[in-house]
Amino acid sequence: MNALALSTAPHLKAKNNTTKIMAIMLVALLPVVIYSIYLFEFNAFFIILASVITCVLTETTYNIFTKKFSVLDLSSVVTGVIFALTLPPTVPLYAPIVGAVFAVFFCKLMFGGIGKNIVNPAAAARVFVLIAFPTVLAGNVWKDMFNVSTATVLPSINAGNFASNVEGASMLNLLFGTHAGSIGETCALMILIIGIVLCAIKFIDWVIPVSILSASALFALICGGVNSILPHLLSGGLIFGAIFMATDYTTSPRSNVGKVLYGIIIGALTILVRIYGSYPEGVSLAIIFANLLVPALNKISIKTTMGYYQKRKIERMQKKELALSSQKGGN
Amino acid sequence: MRGVKFKDTKYLSNFFVDEIKVEPELVYINLHPNTGAPSEACVKVGDQVKIGSLIGKAKEGVSINVFSSVSGVVKEITEFDGKPYVIIQNDKKNTIKKLSPLKDFSKENLIKRIFDAGLFGLSGSGFPTHIKYKTDKKIDCLILNGCECENYLTCDDVLMKTKATEILIGGKLLASIFGLKTFFVGVLDNKKEAINILREAASKLEGAKAIIVKIKTRYPRGAEKLLIKHITKRVVPLGGLPADVGVIVNNVATAYAFYNAAINNLPLTDRYVCVSGLGVKKRGTTIVKNGTTILDLLEAFGNETYDTAELVEYSNTIRALRDEERATVDKNKKIELEKKIKLAVKKHNEAIKGEVSKIIIGGTMMGVTASSLLIPLGLRDGGVLFLTKNEYNESKPSNCINCKKCIAVCPVRIRPVDIAKSLEMGDFKTCKSLNPIACIACGCCSYVCPAKLNLKDQVVKAKRLK
Fold first, then answer.
1. Closest chain B residue to A248 measured between Cα atoms?
2. Cβ pair B240:A307 closer than 8 A
3. Between 20 and 30 A from A223 (CA), which of A9, A207, B129, B282?
4. What is the predicted pLDDT for the residue at A151?
5. How do residues A54-85 score in pLDDT, each as one tens digit?
6. Considering chain B, what percentage of its residues have pLDDT values greater than 90?
7. Which chain B residues are within 8 Å of A249, Cβ to Cβ?
8. What kind of fold does domain B10-16+101-267 have according to CATH?
9. B272-388 in CATH: which number?
10. Has residue A138 got a pLDDT over 80?
11. Which of A8, A68, A305, A314 is the mutation pick for testing B, counting most B CBs within 10 A?
């Protein structure tokens, strides 16, 4: 054995790693988790716990069989928390458990583990649960936690009688989350603040959430008029999805043009599903659809390489000169 | 803001150590330190040489002259790691052979002097300087690069502090080749002392105007093309040279070497080298002759961290064994001797006590690791770092999580992750269209990668696609 360590440059590396990134994500999700437990009490707590434990156990079991230890990177915990936060608080515990297994095993591990999945595991699991257990998840059976006779706003928008319901769930209720909805997506204001902080520390890219929200505002304006913009933006999982799910590193595009298109696709599809589709909520569906387009979106990019345009300019000038000289020669 | 920022580590060695004189027994002079063709050995075994005697004659094209850095006898002409070396026994008399003095400072004479003195890029690129000046393009700007954005390295910093006037006179002469009256010196603002000294020297400079440009500290601000963009706002076209936009960039060490060559008639034989890192107790920057081994340097610095006597003993046995191996013709005996050498090298490396676990020639971002103390330093190497385990980090690469940090950090705006992935898939057409040729091998992408992937190596590999 050689006493001196050998390596290729650079020999110094930043003290950043995947586990740290996941830990920051968990810290960012913590206020949402705490607020949801405050709002929905033990219902929320048990759903989140069941989802996280199932996710971790699934990955651990898989690790034991494949003898590759990857559970310590906390990514399955993040998946578990995000997935649980997209479920309504009244859902029976088997739904988060089945969904968590689907998320971690079928959507992540089967593709080769962290970084290799093609769709967001949490979004895919949410859609899976929505299709597998439609009765417990459909918006119109969501129980109101505050004994006020309002349902979540979205089914009413879907049914077309939006105006009569908007008084029941005022904008203030939507902002502070005191209305029926999924566990984590209720307090729009808090999620927005977290999102702004995450963008400010450059943890997530601001292009994606901004393009999602502006695209969905535009489509809400086109399809439902001025009055439906704010309810669409603030209700349901739009802001939660835009900040926590669509910005998932693995399943979002790499080029800036791709990011904008990705955001527009998600925003537009969400509104279209909400208004014209048969499901009350379209964020997860839109995210999965856009995820599948990411490899194509990655190919659309503007070349920003230093000196690339200068080189092109020189080449063009040379061509012109050549053309000129050949003309002269012809004459 | 692209690029990365480090904790300050320059304070470890940013002073000149007067009392230390490095006098190696043997020097191993590389005849191919530059990019381009190797020079041809023009001495025989047993020849007497002086400091400044020509030992490697430049071939045609991109090649340089190589000079002896000590006075003594040529012991051997051999090959290590595929590069030609001349080994010279030092007689420690330090007799000097100078170049013939210049008649006048005309353009032709100065360019010929650059070639005669064997100047080449001392900042690490190793590009022969005379090729830069033989351009037929119109040059209207000369920049001296004193940025030294690399972590730990302080050789240029100390050079600027001690030889500011000489550097500026060298710069003035270089500028006069193109008839320029002003030139720029780019220095990062973490070298405040050097900036003050240079500004003072610039105010006294006669015949030309030197503009000292203070640049905000960030790695890799000292990269040639980025420096040009910062100072002149011109962008070098992809795959082009600075001369394409009318700029020539030289390291301050090259300017100092040119001063020595033109005024003192001394060819390039030594340079400033810093010894740094927490693995040694005595640190600092000093003048080191071309071909000195790391061990000689360590011995001269007299570090208590090492039992140098033991190290010297081991290295002597290794040298003796190597001599014996070269002398024998018998194959079986050769294999046996090779085994013995390996064992001796192992023992020698085990004798490196203290906490040092990595030796780097150059900086932490672009340098190379040394596998033993017997490796000779060339003129391109500005520093030797003895790092403890706490100063660098090693971790296993994991899956790329597509975090795009490498794209955000890249100073030349290429997409390292895309290049690495297309290279991995064998999609060379896409790979080439992503312009890996722009890569300056700064290593920022590997530095920030949370999955600890060695992206820089992949991009450099992709750069070779023609």
1. B403
2. yes
3. A207
4. 44
5. 999 999 999 999 888 877 889 999 999 999 99
6. 45
7. 401-404
8. Rossmann fold (3.40.50)
9. 3.10.20
10. no
11. A305
- Residues A124-137: tens digit of each pLDDT: 999 999 888 877 76
The closest CB to that of A12, out of B349, B447, B452, belongs to: B447
Q: Which residue among B370, B401, B418 sits closest to A18, beta carbon to beta carbon?
A: B401
**Nearest CB partner across the interface for A5, out of B357, B435, B441:** B357
Question: What confidence score (pLDDT) does residue B305 get?
Answer: 67
Which chain A residues contact residue B400 at CB under 8 A?
A: 115
Domain spans of chain B, in order of start: 10-16+101-267, 26-90, 272-388, 405-463
pLDDT digits (tens, 9 = 90+) for B268-321: 999 999 999 888 888 899 999 999 998 888 888 877 666 667 777 777 787 778
Q: What is the 3 state secondary structure string of chain A?
A: CCCCCCCCCCCCCCCCCHHHHHHHHHHHHHHHHHHHHHHHCHHHHHHHHHHHHHHHHHHHHHHHHHCCCCHHHCHHHHHHHHHHHCCCCCCCCHHHHHHHHHHHHHHHHHHCCCCCCCCCHHHHHHHHHHHHCHHHHCHHHCCCCCCCCCCCHHHHHHHCCHHHHCCCCCHHHHHHCCCCCCCCCCCHHHHHHHHHHHHHCCCCCCHHHHHHHHHHHHHHHHHHCHHHHHHHHHCCCHHHHHHHHCCCCCCCCCCHHHHHHHHHHHHHHHHHHHHHCCCCCCHHHHHHHHHHHHHHHHHCCCCCCCCHHHHHHHHHHHHHHHHHHHHHHHC
Contacting residues of B for A10, CB less than 8 Å apart? 364-366, 443-444, 446-447, 456
Confidence of residue A1 (pLDDT cuts 50, 70, 90): very low
Quick one: fold of B26-90? OB fold (Dihydrolipoamide Acetyltransferase, E2P) (2.40.50)
From B369, B393, B413, residue closest to A305, measured CB to CB = B413
Contact B404 A306 (CB under 8 A): no
Each domain of chain A, given as residue ranges in start order, spans: 18-299
Q: Give the three-state DSSP class for B265.
A: coil
Q: Is A254 on the interface with B (CB under 8 A)?
A: yes
Distance CA B36, CA B64 (A): 9
Whole-structure pTM value: 0.86
- Structure confidence by residue, pLDDT tens digits, B217-263: 998 888 999 999 999 999 999 888 899 999 999 999 999 999 999 99
Which residues between 77 and 106 in chain A have a beta carbon less than 8 angstroms from any beta carbon of chain B? none
Hey, are the CB atoms on A17 and B450 less than 8 Å from each other? yes
Cβ contact, residue pair A310, B237, below 8 Å:
yes
